[in-house]
Amino acid sequence: MKKEQVWVNGLGRLNPPFKRNANRRARLTSSLFGQTSSIIVWTGIAKLETFTEPKELAENPYYQVQRQKSLGDLTDDMIDMPIIDLINGFNKLPYCFTLQSCYGHFVYNDQKDSHTLEPLPVKDTIPKVEYRIAYIAFCIENSLLGRELYETLKKMTAVDPENIQFCCAEWFWKIQINSYALQVEPDRFKLKDTAILDYKEALHIEKIRNEFFFRLYELVENAGKR
Questions:
Q1: How far apart are CA 56 and CA 103, in angstroms?
Q2: What domain range is 141 assigned to?
Q3: Number of folded domains that form the chain
């Protein structure tokens, strides 16, 4: 799981692995919005308290400036390796830019790497798995193509409505207007950064995660042809 730009996790929350980039986040948020908001918690885990249905796109006269500043600070080493091309693909579209992303991590037993990208083993020898959510957070331009992207992302939840959410956070919207998150997370855990799952459910979530990113790669490829 790696930090991109200014989002505090997929739905307005901070994951522990991002602590190492706290100073950078604070500097970038200050650059984008003039000062670091006291609402944002840069250390620890700030639970989302304002999980909301996605708002309609609003006018944002500063979109191009925000996009330029945000993407100017992004490098590939800030992105989980399996989705580098995906994130860069989205960021080539002029009507959106990514705020943060995570490929999703399945941590179990005595693994020391909490950012592991390895798939779950085939054998059912693991009682519990800590799942760290897969997501992408976006800022979308209020334009014809931006509105089309917004509707397409909303429809992504149809892949598995019980485990994929498209939404926004009220408090973060006030910092970055037109910000949204698309994430893979069992619905009962949608307000959390991590979920403790039994092995069978973890395998299902892994399958959904893989399909989720496959669909997003298709989306970006088709959008790039327009």
A1: 27
A2: 16-224
A3: 1
Retrieve residue 95's tokens.
């009507």
Whole-angstrom distance, CA of residue 108 vs CA of residue 220:
32
User: Does any domain span residue 90?
Assistant: yes
The answer to whether residue 10 sits within a structural domain is no
**Tens of pLDDT along 120-164?**
998 778 899 999 999 999 999 999 999 999 999 999 999 999 999
* Closest to 132 in 3D by CA, of 107, 157, 155: 107
- Cα 111 from Cα 106, distance rounded (Å): 10
- For the whole model, what pTM was predicted? 0.79
**Complete DSSP assignment for 135-161:** EEEEEE-SSHHHHHHHHHHHHGGGG-T
**Assigned domain for 11 exists:** no
Determine the residue type at 5: Q
Q: In CATH, what number is assigned to the domain containing residue 84?
A: 3.30.1960
Judge whether 47 and 13 are in contact, CB under 8 Å.
yes
Question: What is the length of the chain?
Answer: 226
**CA–CA distance from 67 to each of 30, 166, 186 (Å)?**
14, 21, 31
pLDDT tens profile 199-210: 999 999 999 999
Q: How far is CA 197 from CA 45, 128, 157, 163, 184, in A?
A: 19, 6, 20, 13, 13
